[in-house]
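Sharing a chain and its predicted structure for anyone who wants a worked example. Both blocks are below, sequence first, tokens second.
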Amino acid sequence: MKYSKPHLPYEDQLDLLIRRGLACSDRAGTLYWLRRIGYYRLSAYFIPFKDPATGNFRPGTTFEQIIDLYRFDADLRRLVREALDAIEISVRAVITYEVGKDLGVFGYADRTNFAAAFNHADFMKILRREEGRSTEVFIGHYRTKYKSETDLPVWMATELISFGALSKMYEHLRTSLRKKIAREFNQPQPVFVAGSTP
């Protein structure tokens, strides 16, 4: 099948919505939102207001209802992102602290501190790649001041790596250290290991 839908100017997009049963009391306002958000992105928010049998809007559906749903979704996504950011920061801080305390400032760089199944060489390669790409001021300062050091202190290293890489590092720490970290969150340690169940 060949794609045949043409590009539609904003006015024509709105006319199409109106033909499909959308009530539009404020044409200028609706056109504003079509320009700022885009028809395609908004089309996901049309779905709850459409009759599945006809594909048209249910009687009485207004563009304001669609925008209200869009705003609700945007607010919810923002709140979830903020909550996840707070959790990630806290988990990073606890892992960093406990690894530094138990294994030492550079303990993460010693493969003997991890389970044999951990691909420590790959982990260190990822960390070095992230350091090479980093524009963080603290990295430049550290490398200028401590030229003889091969590795970064754990508190710098854990700021550079992705949360996925941090999770893999945690997963392969010795069990006692994993348990200590998990206890900080009143959780059994398998909760912090990807793919595990408590």
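Comments welcome. Residues 10-61 form one domain.
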